[in-house]
Design brief:
Number of helices: 12
Protein name: NAD(P)/FAD-dependent oxidoreductase
Structural class: alpha/beta
Organism: Haloarcula nitratireducens
Number of domains: 1
Distance between the termini: 55 Å
Oligomer: single chain
CATH topology: FAD/NAD(P)-binding domain
Largest sheet: 7 strands, mixed
Order of helices and strands: EHEEEEEEHEHEHEEEEHEEEHHHHHHH
Strand order of the largest sheet: 6-5-11-12-13-10-14
Length: about 400
Amino acid sequence: MNQTPTVAVLGGAMAGLAAAEGLHSDGFDVELYERQTYNEKRVNCGEAMTAASAIPLEKTAENGFINPLPEMEVEVYDGVQSDRQCTGRGRFTASDAYITDRNVVEQSWADRLAQRGVDVNENRSITPTELFEFADGYDVVVDATGQPSLTSKALQSTGEYSGYLVALNADVVGDFSDVYPNSRIILENYTGYTWAFSKTPNRANVGIGWAVSDRPDDYMAAFKRACERNGWPEPTRERTNVAIIPEGPSLDPQRTYHPDYSIVRVGDAAGIANRLTGKGISQAIQSSYLAAELAAENRLEAYPEQLYREMKPEYLLATVIRYFTETRQPQILGKAIQAGSGMDIEAVDRSPRDVLIQLARHPRLFVQIFGKRKVLQRVYQAATDQWEYTSIPDGESPIVDSSF
C-alpha cells in the first residue's frame, strides 16, 4: 500500500497557509510550522487583500474581512513639500478586494486547516540546521519564511536576493471619514508611496514604503511627517511594524526549487512581489497553489519556470512604470494614473495587457512612456531575463536594515 506523502510547511503566514491548503486538498499529509502563536501574532502588512476569492474563508468580520473595498483612490504629487502640486488622480475599482485585519485572517485560516486535519504547530521556530533534518524526514518541504528565507540561511546564501522595499505599517485610530469606505494611495515623487486602508470611519491601516535607494535615515519620523501632510492621524511607534518586501524578481527563479532537498520556496521566500506597488499577497497565494498543484503531479521540477512565466509580464510592466518614480517624472506618472482610472486595482498590478490597452487609448502619453530609450532598454532587459539577481557580487548580502 502506498503511503501518503508528507509535507512540512515552514512559515504560517499567507503563503504558508495557502501552501498547506493546497497540499492538504491534494491528498498530502501536511504539518505547518509557525514561529509565533496566532493569538499573539501582530502583523498588518498587506491588509488590503485583492483576489480575495482565492482565500477559502467566508468573508466576514469574524474571519478578519472588515469590509469590501469599493474603490482605491490614487493621487500623484510632485513632492513632499508644503506647496506640492497634484499631477494626477485616479479611482480604481476593486471587485474582489477586502480591507482586513490580517492577523485575524491568518488565525481563521489556521483554525480551518486544523479542523480539516492539518497539524498546525504554533510557537515553533525552525533553525537553519533543522531545515536539513526536515528535508530528510519529509517528502517535500515548503519554505514560506520570507526574504531572506530559511533556505538561504541554511545554505549560507542570504546574499542571493537582489533587493527589497522597506514598509512601515500601523493600525491607527482616528478620523478617516474623508477616506472611508474607500482607501487611498499617495505617490509623492520618490520610489514608494503612503497609504490609508480604511477599516471604519475611525480606524485604518496606515503605512509608508520606500525603495532602498530612497529610504530616509529615520523611518518613524518620515512616517509621521507623511501622515501629517496627508491629514491622517499619526501612528505610535509601539503599534508600528516594519516589513521587508521583495523587489520581484529578487531571486533567480531556478533557485526557488532545490531538488536535492525537495525544498520549494513560495511567496516572499521565492522573491516574488510587485516592485512598483510592493503588493505580494495574491502573488504569494498564487505561488503556493502552483507549488501544491505541481507537487501533486510529481512535477515540482517545473515550478521555477512556470512560476516565472506567470509572473514575468507583471515584472516587466512594474519595472517600466517604476522608471518614472526613480527618475522623478511625476507629471507622466500622474497622467498614467489618470489614463488608467476606472480599471480594477488587481488588473493594474497583474494584467499588463489590460494596462497597455488602456494606455494605448492615449497615444501621446503612450509615446511619452514607451518612446524613451531607457524605457525600451528596460523592456528589452526584462524580456531577456536580465534582472538584478544576475549581477550580485559574491558574498554580498543586501538584506540589512536597522533604521526603524
